[in-house]
Amino acid sequence: KHDAPSAGTEKALHMYIKSTILSLSVLLLTSLSAHSAVVWSDEFDDPKIDTDTWTWDVASHGFGNGQMEYTTSRATNSYIDSGSLILQALQEDYFGKSFTSARLNTQGRFAFKYGTLEARIQLPDTADGLWPAFWMLGNNFPGINWPGCGEIDILESGADAGIQNGTQNELINCAMHFSNA
Question: What 8-state DSSP symbol labels residue 48?
């Protein structure tokens, strides 16, 4: 004679089954993405930035979040060194701004719908207000204004709140922005 399982045992069994299914799903998805074909790569092994792929946002308007620099396409602000893309912020007077830096993107040159995104990024000390970021913007921008075009912030570091509480070099911010949010 077998007794019916108790409510606690039945609940534990359901949790075990759900966690097993979730684990197998994650394993399947990660193994699929790990073995997917590379659709684009830039190892920065050429001496100059590939202008067929990369373009510069040259501006001084602060990009909606009060950035204090003038972003340039000058080689002093963005260049390749030993297989690494260097984005260099400099304190200098430049067209009314006290700093210069660079902002590169692939807009209109490369886009993808599905896949795995991977990067090696060395972050600077952000104690003095630097705000390094690695993010994606909808391919329909600027035809559809932000945030309706969508944005995924994979990595942002050095936000004002982190500077205020001393955690700017310890935390990485991630976010998704979309219409009406």
Answer: S
- pTM for the whole structure: 0.72
Residues that are catalytic: 151, 156
Nearest alpha-carbon partner for 178 in 132, 129, 140, 126 = 140
Cis peptide bond upstream of 142, omega within 30:
yes
Query: Tokens at residue 50, please?
Result: 């590939």
What is the amino acid identity at position 7? A
Q: What is the pLDDT of residue 126?
A: 79
Mapped onto helix, strand or coil, the DSSP state of residue 9 is helix
Q: What letter represents residue 180's amino acid?
A: N
The two three-digit tokens of residue 154, written as one number: 């994979």
3-class SS letters over 80-107: EECCEEEECCEEEEECCEEEEECCEECC
